[in-house]
């Protein structure tokens, strides 16, 4: 709305407000000018130079943003190269798989293993390793079921599968084999398997089995100075450069339903077969490390060897001198 259309009292109020603003700005300008005039010369030059520096800095560089106190600049993380697992060969087991479902057959098989253990015990002082593993059905509604299958492997070319789900008690020959003082049961994370077996079969003493078992993952960590928690599949990939086919359809199958399928038998046999291969590989590596540690010569041995060298050198010199004296042409 223009001033012409405003009433007289409104136009006079606007004019008086504008005059007051003009007077105020003029007074402030006069005060500032008076302050600058009254300021000493050395102070006015310092103020002018500071204003010039600020103007130059503001025009040359962009304004800096204030960073948070907990801000950290991103650093490049070193990532380990990913191992192409799909290029590793699958484990191909071609040995014998013995599958027993009755108590007499299991007892007879365990008696044969005991004979082998006794025979080896008489010929060697080393422990007798036997790969050990268990399988049981798992239901998402009821949880883990009763132990269904026990796998044993004493030699890489023979795997034994015992269908214990159809038994009320384990055969005495099997317990005698597991408790034998020269037998070393081994596997990866099988300590819980011993407790599981003891819960399902009260005649089993889990503490007695745990006292002499060997965890392959812990053994590998001790030999290499690692603290990694290994699974059987990862340990096989690391040590043997092979790959286990962990088919979930077979792994989560009904292990208590008789008879087992060919896929189930092969899956169960490979678990203990590859465990036995791992044990033999780690035992050989430990033997090599012990040989290297024991091969360090002692000071006494070095002195004896140096004395022998000096004696051999003196004998050669004496023989040469005698030949020269006996030769008339020299």
UniProtKB/TrEMBL annotation:
Annotated spans, Disordered: 47-77
Stored InterPro entries: 3'-5'_exonuclease_dom, 3-5_Exonuclease_domain, RNaseH-like_sf, RNaseH_sf
Molecular function via GO: 3'-5' exonuclease activity; metal ion binding; nucleic acid binding
**Where does this chain mainly localize?**
nucleus
UniProt domain 3'-5' exonuclease: residue ranges: 104-287
Is the keyword Protein transport in the record?
no
Q: Which domain of life is it from?
A: Eukaryota
Q: Name one GO biological process term.
A: nucleobase-containing compound metabolic process
From the Swiss-Prot or TrEMBL record, state where the protein is found. Nucleus
UniProt cross-references to SUPFAM superfamilies, sorted A to Z: Ribonuclease H-like
A Pfam match is: DNA_pol_A_exo1
> What are its GO cellular component terms?
nucleus
| Compositional bias ranges of the Polar residues kind | 47-60
Which keywords describe this protein according to UniProt? Exonuclease, Hydrolase, Magnesium, Metal-binding, Nuclease, Nucleus, Phosphoprotein
Q: Does the keyword Kinase apply?
A: no
The UniProt function text for this chain reads: Has exonuclease activity on both single-stranded and duplex templates bearing overhangs, but not blunt ended duplex DNA, and cleaves in a 3'-5' direction. Essential for the formation of DNA replication focal centers. Has an important role in maintaining genome stability.
Similarity-based family: Belongs to the WRNexo family.
Q: What is this protein called?
A: 3'-5' exonuclease
Please give the organism.
Anopheles culicifacies
Q: What is the lineage of its organism?
A: Eukaryota, Metazoa, Ecdysozoa, Arthropoda, Hexapoda
């Amino acid at each position: 709305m223009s001033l012409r259309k405003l009433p007289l009292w409104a136009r006079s109020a606007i004019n008086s407000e504008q005059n007051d603003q003009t007077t105020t700005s003029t007074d402030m300008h006069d005060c500032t000018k008076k302050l600058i005039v009254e300021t000493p010369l050395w102070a006015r030059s310092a103020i002018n130079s500071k204003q010039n520096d600020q103007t130059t800095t503001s025009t040359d560089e962009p304004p800096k943003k204030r960073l948070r106190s907990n801000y950290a600049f991103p650093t490049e993380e070193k990532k380990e190269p990913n191992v192409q697992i799909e290029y590793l060969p699958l484990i191909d087991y071609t040995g014998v798989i013995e599958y027993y479902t009755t108590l007499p057959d299991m007892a007879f098989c365990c008696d044969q293993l005991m004979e082998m253990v006794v025979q080896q015990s008489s010929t060697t002082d080393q422990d007798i390793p036997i790969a050990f593993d268990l399988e049981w059905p798992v239901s998402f509604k009821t949880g883990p079921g009763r132990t269904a299958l026990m796998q044993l492997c004493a030699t890489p070319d023979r795997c034994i599968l015992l269908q214990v789900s159809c038994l009320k008690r384990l055969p005495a020959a099997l317990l005698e084999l597991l408790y034998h003082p020269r037998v070393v049961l081994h596997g990866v994370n099988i300590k819980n398997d011993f407790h599981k077996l003891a819960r399902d079969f009260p005649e089993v003493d889990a503490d007695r089995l745990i006292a002499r078992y060997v965890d392959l993952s812990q053994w590998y960590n001790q030999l290499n100075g690692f603290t990694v928690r290994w699974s059987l599949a990862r340990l096989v990939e690391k040590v043997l450069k092979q790959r286990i086919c962990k088919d979930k359809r077979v792994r989560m199958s009904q292990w208590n339903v008789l008879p087992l399928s060919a896929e189930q038998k092969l899956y169960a046999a490979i678990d203990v077969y590859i465990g036995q291969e791992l044990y033999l590989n780690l035992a050989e590596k430990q033997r090599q490390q012990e040989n290297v540690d024991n091969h360090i010569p002692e000071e006494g041995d070095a002195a004896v060897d140096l004395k022998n060298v000096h004696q051999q050198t003196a004998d050669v010199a004496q023989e040469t001198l005698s030949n020269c004296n006996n030769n008339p042409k020299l």
